[in-house]
Design a protein that fits this description.
Elements: E1 3-5, E2 8-10, E3 14-16, H1 25-33, E4 39-40, E5 44-45, H2 46-50, H3 54-60, E6 69-74, H4 78-91, E7 96-101, H5 106-109, H6 121-134, E8 139-146, H7 154-163, E9 169-175, H8 186-195, E10 200-203, H9 209-219, E11 223-226, H10 236-244, H11 254-274, H12 279-283, H13 285-291, H14 294-300, H15 307-313, H16 320-330, H17 345-349
Parallel strand pairs: 3-11, 4-6, 5-6, 6-7, 7-8, 8-9, 9-10, 10-11
Antiparallel strand pairs: 1-2
Helix pairs in contact: 4-6, 6-7, 7-8, 9-10, 11-13, 11-16, 15-16
The protein binds flavin mononucleotide.
């Protein structure tokens, strides 16, 4: 068993990073199928959840096949955060509550939340403790290396998370100032691992299986978290698992990539229709399903002979079959006749 978070056993060593707009329940399910150890929801504002915003409810919805799954909350004030965590525990099938302490977005940090929390480790401890006291589920946190190059304090923050009762910490080894680019501080991950007793998950810059192995070797982290390397590439988890166990790493075939792309599109269409309340929304459901998947579509055709042409076409693709055929064309394959209609008769009738 690679690692445990309190009572939760995580059977595989690579987990999916929370990514707003990317890691919805459909994608999380596909990743779990490919030996991803654990997944997280996209970050959700604790206040919005307590105010009952439908969009926030949808972000925390989970499905059975994706567990273990953590619900990631963000906020600044311990009380609403604790209340939101208690609400999640009561209403959502999930395995842990994760607290976001790494989001770099101005809208979030200007309110003292996300990465801004790292500047105040005492608040971090209070916040974690408030949530730990409010729920039975394990509480974890996701942080960065620090605020800027001159304020690298992830060790202090990890100690604060542990002191507050947090049971695992995931660290994106870049500062808030770096956002998502630039080198990942692996020596710092090693320092954190030495400083705390709770499991440490290393994150940042893992684009292929060998990167995960090197991160683990150089830092000693208990597990790795993959973000952008998984977009349109759920096989990366299987590849890391194979590399971890000394097995040969296999790349997906073109057929596997196109089949996965179609499954992903069909799942997105299903969700888009299920979430359309008005007839007007239903008419645009197919287009919304395709536009919501643009990042993944690019991932599925990465490295294809006509990848650049596909990229240029992307914003003009509004129907799933057109998107699928454009992806096939990127691999020099002719259009395919649909296996089933879009949407299926069952979805149409629902
Ligand atoms: C589009 C996008 C959305 C993200 N949303 C979240 C989020 O909701 N919560 C979070 O903790 N991190 C979020 N992140 C950060 C990732 O979880 C991860 O820490 C970061 O991408 C670094 O990992 P990588 O180099 O493997 O991509 C997001 C990153 C991206 C690119």
């Amino acid at each position: 068993m690679p690692f445990s978070i309190g009572p939760i056993s995580v059977a595989r060593v690579a987990v999916l990073a929370p990514m707003a707009g990317i890691t919805d329940h459909n994608f999380r399910f596909l990743c779990r199928e490919q030996r991803c150890g654990m997944v997280y929801t996209e970050l959700v504002n604790a206040d919005c959840l307590l105010r009952g915003l439908q969009r926030s409810f949808r972000l925390v919805e989970t499905q059975p096949g994706e567990r273990p799954v953590g619900v990631q909350l963000y906020g600044w004030d311990p009380q609403p955060l604790a209340e939101a965590a208690a609400w999640v525990e009561e209403h959502i099938d999930c395995d842990l509550i994760d607290l976001n302490m790494g989001c770099p977005v101005p809208k979030v940090v200007s309110r003292g939340a996300g990465a801004a929390l790292m500047r105040d480790p005492q608040r971090v401890e209070r916040l974690v403790r408030a949530v730990v006291d409010a729920v039975e589920l394990p509480v974890t946190a996701k942080t960065r290396s620090g605020w800027t190059e001159n304020e690298i304090n992830a060790v202090d923050v990890a100690l604060a998370v542990e002191a507050g009762g947090g049971q695992c910490i995931a660290v994106h080894g870049r500062t808030r100032a770096q956002r998502h680019e630039g080198p990942v501080n692996w020596p710092l991950l090693a320092e954190i691992k030495r400083a705390v007793d709770i499991p440490v998950i290393g994150n940042g810059g893992i684009l292929e299986a060998s990167h995960a192995i090197t991160m683990r070797e150089q830092s000693g982290v208990d597990a790795v978290m993959v973000g952008r390397g998984a977009i349109g590439n759920p096989w990366i988890f299987k590849q890391i698992d194979d590399a971890w166990h000394g097995r040969e790493v296999q790349l997906p075939t073109v057929k596997e990539r196109l089949d996965m792309l179609e499954r992903h599109l069909r799942a997105a269409v299903h969700t888009s229709i299920a979430w359309s309340r008005r007839a007007r929304d239903r008419e645009t459901a197919l287009g919304r399903a395709v536009s919501g998947l643009r990042g993944h579509l690019l991932g599925y055709v990465r490295g294809a002979p006509e990848e650049v042409a596909f990229r240029h076409q992307l914003n003009s693709l509004h129907h799933p079959q057109t998107a699928l055929d454009a992806a096939r064309a990127a691999f020099h394959l002719p259009p395919a006749s649909p296996k089933e209609p879009w949407p299926t008769a069952q979805e149409q009738a629902a």
